C-alpha cells in the first residue's frame, strides 16, 4: 500500500520539540521537513545534521513550506496567535499541554478547528499510558463496583532550587508554575477517567523555591453524582528522579493503585473475566503495553503522535482533542479562582 508522505513542521525546538521531532520521523509516511525557533543555534544544528529547513519565525515557515501538520511546542502564552495562523492555512495541529491559558480561547480554538475538520490534539500523555487506560477500562467495566473516591497525584524534582525570575516557568503569565506545568496532567487524567468535575474547592498553593508561582498544589474535586477526589502535585520533591503520576480509585467492591509502570488491584470477589483473584493482584506495564515503532521517554509519547497521524489519515477524532484540553483549563481556572494565597517558600 502506498502512503502519501505527510510533511510536518515543528514550532519550538526546546526539549519537547526535539522529542516530538525525533519520534515523528520514525512513523511510516511522515517526515519533519522544517523547524521554527527564535534560537538560531539549535535550528542551525537541525538544518545541518537533520536535513530540515530552519526558520526563526513560525509565520515564514508556515507560508513557505508545503505542510500538512504542525507540532506546536512553545510556551502556552504564545500558542493562541500561532494557532490562529495555522487555522488560516488549514493545517492539522498537535500542541504540547496545557494548550492555552484561557478556557475561552481554548473553547474558541476547539470549535474553529472542528468546524474546519482539522485534527487537533493536545499532548496529555497519560491518556496513552497502557496502565492508566487499563485502569480506566476496569473501572468502567464495574470491577470496583460503584466508584466513590479517587486521588490523582504527581511528583517530580523539577524545581529544587531558587528560580531565576527570567525563567519562563517563574510566572503564570507565561504558563509557569506547578498548576499549568504538572497539575494539568493530573487533572486531565481525572477528566479522562471520570469526566470533568462539577466543582473545585479548598485549593491550596504553596511556594517552596519559586517566588511568584506555586510549587505544591492541593485541592478537592466534586461531581454531582457523589463522586469526589483529591488532587495533589509537588514538583519540588527531590525524592523523585523522574516525573511520576499516581492514581488511586476506590469503589464499594475494590480499589486500584496505579502509576505509569504498573498497578495493584484489590477486589473483594474473584473476577475470572479480568483474570483477578479475590484480594490483591499485580499488573505490570509489561502485561498490558502496546507496541510502538520507536521508544523515547516512554511508549505513550510515540503512541500519542501515532494517534495524531492516524487521525489525519482516517478522519477519526483524536483521544485528546482541543475540547478535552479546554475542559482541563476550565478546572485550572477554578483552582486559581478559589485558592488561598500562595504561602510558604522563600523569604
The CATH architecture designation of the largest domain is 2-Layer Sandwich
> Mean of the pLDDT scores?
94
What is CATH's topology name of the largest domain?
Dihydrodipicolinate Reductase, domain 2
The arrangement of helices and strands along the chain is EHEHEHEHEHEHEHEEEEEEEHHH
Q: Bin the helical content.
A: 25-40%
CATH level 1 name of the largest domain:
Alpha Beta
Number of strands: 14
Rg over alpha carbons: 21 Å
Which structural category fits the helices and strands?
Answer: alpha/beta
Number of helices: 10
How many separate domains make up the residues? Answer: 2
Distance between the termini: 64 Å
* Shape, principal axes of CA atoms: globular
Strand order in space, largest sheet: 8-9-10-7-11-12-13-14
Largest beta-sheet characterization: 8 strands, mixed
- List segments where confidence is low: pLDDT < 50 over at least 5 consecutive residues: none
Assigned CATH superfamily of the largest domain: Dihydrodipicolinate Reductase, domain 2
Task: Report the sheet-strand fraction.
Answer: 15-25%
Description:
- There is one protein chain.
- The chain is of the alpha/beta class.
- The protein has two domains: 6-125 and 298-320, Rossmann fold (3-Layer(aba) Sandwich); 127-291 and 329-338, Dihydrodipicolinate Reductase, domain 2 (2-Layer Sandwich).
- It is built from ten helices and 14 strands.
- The chain has helices at residues 15-24, 40-49, 58-64, 79-88, 103-115, 130-140, 178-194, 285-288, 299-314, 322-338, and strands at residues 6-11, 30-36, 53-55, 69-72, 92-95, 120-122, 147-155, 199-206, 216-222, 228-234, 244-251, 254-259, 262-267, 279-284.
- Strand 11 (244-251) and strand 12 form a beta hairpin.
- The longest helix is centred in the middle third of the chain and has 17 residues, at 178-194.
- The N and C termini lie far apart (64 Å).
